[in-house]
Amino acid sequence: MKWLEVVEPYDFEAMISSLARAHEHTRSASGGVAVIIARAPCLIHERPALDRWKERVVEVDPEICKGCGLCVKTFECPAILQPEKKAKVTIDRTICVNCASCLHACKEGALQLRDSRGSGASSSPRR
Ligand code: SF4
Ligand code: SF4
């Protein structure tokens, strides 16, 4: 194996940078297979470990969502649902773990992190 990197996948900048290097390697004349080892599980399968996030909830602001579908196409979390083209997206509460990894996927700021205790506080990386 010529190219292997170990990454913390929830460090988005590090992960994206590693993916770019892997892509470059696979496309180069002397390249080939690139392997990235992500040192964290998919959080959807780690619900019991998520108590630390029980006081927050990720929601879609329907006033802001334009139904462009970019979050579905580019981020691909199965908890983000778009039943039909151009429809505003919704979050499947049965599988969403409120990890907030998707917030950066919407440049409009429609994906928001709120305090589930009702303080009304919210945040988005784009707004
Ligand atoms: S949440 Fe953002 S990226 Fe996703 S469909 Fe709505 S506007 Fe588009
Ligand atoms: S917070 Fe976002 S990325 Fe995390 S599980 Fe829910 S929809 Fe998916």
Would you give an account of this structure?
The protein is of the alpha+beta class and 127 residues long. The chain folds into 2 domains: 3-40, no CATH class; 45-123, Alpha-Beta Plaits (2-Layer Sandwich), CATH 3.30.70. 17% of the residues lie in helices and 20% in strands. The chain has 2 helices and 7 strands, in the order E-H-E-E-H-E-E-E-E. It has helices at 12-27, 70-75; strands at residues 3-7, 34-38, 56-60, 80-81, 90-91, 111-115, 122-123. The strands form 3 sheets. The protein has a 3-stranded antiparallel β-sheet, with no helix packed on it. The relative contact order is 0.17. The mean pLDDT is 87. Bound molecules: iron/sulfur cluster (SF4) (2 copies). The site of one iron/sulfur cluster has 13 residues, from helix 2. One iron/sulfur cluster (SF4) is lined by residues 60, 65-71, 89, 106, 108, 110-111.
How many helices in DSSP terms?
Answer: 2
The ordered string of helix (H) and strand (E) elements is EHEEHEEEE
Indicate the proportion of strand residues.
15-25%
What binds here, in terms of ligands, is: iron/sulfur cluster
The CATH architecture of the largest domain can be given as 2-Layer Sandwich
Strand order of the largest sheet: 3-6-7
Quaternary structure state of the chains depicted: single chain
What is the global morphology? globular
What is the CATH topology of the largest domain? Alpha-Beta Plaits
Structural class: alpha+beta
Averaging pLDDT over every residue, what do you get?
87
* Overall strand count: 7
pLDDT < 50 stretches: none
| Count of the separate structural domains | 2
Whole-Å distance between the termini?
Answer: 42 Å
The biggest beta sheet is recorded as: 3 strands, antiparallel
Radius of gyration: 17 Å
- Using the coordinates above, name the CATH class of the largest domain: Alpha Beta
State the helicity in percent bands.
10-25%
